[in-house]
Amino acid sequence: MPMVNIAGKDYEVDEEGYLIDLSQWNEDIAKYMAVEEKVELTEGHWEVVNFLREYYAEYQIAPAVRVLTKAIGKKLGPDKGNNKYLYELFPYGPAKQACKIAGLPKPTGCI
Amino acid sequence: MSDMDEMEDGSGIVKKFMFLNRKAPHGTVYALEGLEVVLITAAFDQDVSMVFTDDGVYQLLKGIDTKGIEVKDFSKTYRALDGYDIEKLYVDQASMDARGLVEDDLIVDVTVLSVDEMANLMAEQDVVISF
Questions:
Q1: CA distance B116 to chain A (A)
Q2: Which domains does chain A have, with CATH numbers?
Q3: Are strands B88-92 and B16-21 parallel, antiparallel or unpaired?
Q4: Structural domain boundaries, residue B84
Q5: At what angle do helices A65-76 and A43-59 cross, to 10 degrees?
Q6: Residues of A acting as catalytic residues
């Protein structure tokens, strides 16, 4: 497995760059993943990333994009729970990119 | 999705899928893999029912603790099914009775069915997949 070294700490990632050990996640690795994904993290991005971490803690899965959109809408309001907003934040797929930055595995059913 | 897409790639077709879960949650990969297939099927907007029978009823048990066997506790994931619009969860009455379980022992709301009711439901499906 490939390793990533950030600030003297080693992180194991899979061949697509997803963090292997969820418990290793911190802001450093999130920022590193964001650079890899060419995403500049704003408050809006963090909101989604933190939402995903909470979702994972509760259900032990990374949600499919449709489910994520609906759940975000419920929690943060309809102006954020829609594809346009989420794809503006994460152009290469909100579930895929945001999950990676949040240290979660690739969502099930992610195509 | 536009009507055009549906006509071109057949993505508008909805089939009735039933997933039969017959095995205890841990010890084999069937329960976890089956759950993944269910989530993928739902992501394709299909009509999904899940049935828990035999030792499969243990998958829905409340208060599962997997720390001692060092595997992921995916029982919490059954509570996410609602968000995937999977609301048709059925358990087999006889399997529950044989294991001394009642609905209150389970982490999600289910419909308990008799063998006859289960057979009728199964007959209505387009696809039945057993895990």
A1: 33
A2: 3-101 (1.10.10.370)
A3: unpaired
A4: 12-61+75-130
A5: 110
A6: 110
Chain segment B10-55, per-residue pLDDT in tens: 668 899 999 999 999 999 999 999 999 999 898 888 999 999 999 9
Say yes or no for a CB contact (<8 Å) between A64 and B36.
no
Chain A residues in contact with B39 (beta carbon < 8 A): 61, 64, 108-109
Q: Please, what are the averages of pLDDT over each run of 10 residues along chain A (111 residues)?
A: 87 91 92 94 95 94 89 93 93 89 80 48
Please report whether residue B30 resides in a domain.
Answer: yes
Instruction: Kindly calculate the radius of gyration of chain A based on its CA atoms and give it in whole angstroms.
Output: 13
* Token pair of A9 as six digits: 């700490």
Q: Which two tokens stand for residue A1?
A: 């497995």
Say which DSSP state A64 is in. Answer: P
Q: Under an 8 A CB cutoff, do B79 and A58 touch?
A: yes
Residue B98's CATH number: 3.40.1260.10
Residue B4 lies in a domain: no
Residue by residue, DSSP assigns B46-109 as -EEEEEE-GGGGGGGBTT---GGGT---GGGGGGGGGGGT--EEEEEHHHHHHTT--GGGBSS-
Domains of chain B: total: 1
Note the pLDDT tens digit of each residue in B94-111.
Answer: 999 999 999 999 999 999
The answer to whether position B7 is within a domain reads no
Only one residue has tokens 């729970």, namely A81
The ipTM assigned to this model is 0.81
Query: What residues are paired with B90 via a beta bridge?
Result: B51, B111
